[in-house]
Amino acid sequence: MSDTLDHRLVTTRKAHQCHGCTRLIVANSQMYRWAVVQEGTVHSGYTCVTCNAIINHYPHDYWDWEMDFGFGHMTEHITNCDHHGRTPEQFLEMLKRN
């Protein structure tokens, strides 16, 4: 089980790679900074606004929080939903329409 230590919207001072879609997000962009502790180890990173919105689109219990959130998980999720080749923004818009 993991426990959330931090999850907040920040304006970055440098470029960061999104943990969800692996895209490089330029400096001075808004991203979600997060930190969790799992089995005594702290993990942290950044998620772009779009990937965070996709995560929040689904009910909390939709995700297996222990298994679903490895690096690049959102790209894998989009592909597994038979939407290979769509950007996270395109996938989010599709979710909003349905």
Structural account:
It is a single chain. This protein is α+β, with helices and mostly antiparallel strands and 98 residues long. The protein contains three helices and five strands. The strands form two sheets. The protein has a three-stranded antiparallel β-sheet. It has a two-stranded antiparallel sheet with strand order 2-3. The longest helix has 10 residues. The N and C termini lie far apart (32 Å).
How would you describe the oligomerization state of the chains in this entry? single chain
Distance between the termini: 32 Å
Global outline: globular
Structure summary, number of beta strands: 5
> In sequence order, what are the helices and strands, one letter per element?
EEEEEHHH
Spans where pLDDT lies below 50 across 5 or more residues: none
Beta-strand portion reads 25-35%
Sheet having the most strands: 3 strands, antiparallel
Helix amount? 25-40%
How large is the count of helical segments?
Answer: 3
Secondary structural class: alpha+beta
- Calculate the mean pLDDT score and round it: 88
